[in-house]
Amino acid sequence: FMAAVANALIYPVFGWRVLFFIGVLLALLAVFVRWGVPESPVWLARRANLAATRTRAKFSITAAGLQGWLFMFLLQFQNTAIFAFYPAFLQTVHHYTPGQIFPFAATYSVASIIGKPSIGYIASRFGQRPTLVTYLLITIPGALFFTLVGGTAGLYFGAFLMGIVANSIFGLVPHFLSQRFPTEMRSLGMGTGYGIANIGGSICSFV
Known about the structure:
Layout: H1 2-9, H2 11-14, H3 16-25, H4 29-36, H5 41-53, H6 63-84, H7 86-92, H8 98-126, H9 128-147, H10 152-166, H11 173-178, H12 186-206
Helix pairs in contact: 1-8, 6-12, 8-9, 8-10, 9-10
């Protein structure tokens, strides 16, 4: 949402380079993480256990881990196709200016803010797998409203639907992905998963 605000206010006046460096400055969050975020109690307990038993962590890739990596690849391909190209889609197909794009980007951003905690609540009641399958299936007709329905009302409805459904899947992804790996390789498995997701996004851009 804040990126949409910055794009509407800063890009028309200062161009993309200023936006880029504002994004780079956000890496200063590392200072907050270092001073304000405690270490994971699960990791601390695991390290203490390894020290007490004088053993070393064993790394292994399971079928569930491979499934998680493939899922991330495909999901980020989808996410890039839907959201990364959305501003360009509005400019080239509907001929909106960067400032006119903001209300639609804000709509799916706000919908996503609502949708991410909602999918967490739904998954806690009905399970992760049926929730993910349902959300992915709803994404298919939702994409039609997102791209093919003309008129301002249709575009707003499509943006809201994709924000509250398709993008909200990422509210469940960290928990889903973390469960694909045992404790001793969870960080490695998840980090690799997000790296593989970036490959999916890159291939989507090329396609």
